[in-house]
Amino acid sequence: MADRSLRGMRIGANSMESEQGVEFAPRLQAQYDCPDGHTIILPFSTEADVPVVWECRCGKEALLRDASKPEAKPGKPARTHWDMLLERRTVSELEDLLAERLELLRAGKLRRSA
Ligand SMILES: [Zn+2]
């Protein structure tokens, strides 16, 4: 009796564990508005590129409703090395530095670092 109920517990515990082990990928719901008034809601992985246009069941192009993408982060323009440099120095500072360096170079005071 005691043995049997213990075994039953173990099976139950195991199935609980296997359910907990399943990880769901984060998802967002993309909502599309058809010009005919149809609404399409599609789940996308947050990793996925959500298409801006989806073909509606009536054959028309439904447009992605931006407000329904809470997970989507606003796109940041890519920063170039030049942008990063300008965050630390102004152009006039850079010009001064360049002039200073050129002066040293012309005077033969600059050596390449080994
Ligand atoms: Zn439609």
UniProtKB/TrEMBL annotation:
UniProt key word Lyase: no
Q: Which cofactor does it need?
A: Zn(2+)
- Record's superkingdom? Bacteria
Query: What keywords are assigned to this protein?
Result: Metal-binding, Transcription, Transcription regulation, Zinc
Keyword Nucleus in the entry? The reply is no
Q: Which residues bind Zn(2+)?
A: 34, 38, 56, 58
Q: What processes in GO biological process is this protein linked to?
A: positive regulation of DNA-templated transcription
Gene Ontology MF terms: bacterial-type RNA polymerase core enzyme binding; zinc ion binding
Q: Which Pfam families match?
A: RbpA
Q: Which HAMAP family match?
A: RbpA
Describe the family membership recorded for this protein in Swiss-Prot or TrEMBL.
Answer: Belongs to the RNA polymerase-binding protein RbpA family.
Q: How does it assemble?
A: Forms a complex with the RNAP catalytic core and with free principal sigma factors.
Q: What does this protein do?
A: Binds to RNA polymerase (RNAP), stimulating transcription from principal, but not alternative sigma factor promoters.
Q: What is this protein called?
A: RNA polymerase-binding protein RbpA
Organism in which the protein naturally occurs: Cellulomonas bogoriensis 69B4 = DSM 16987
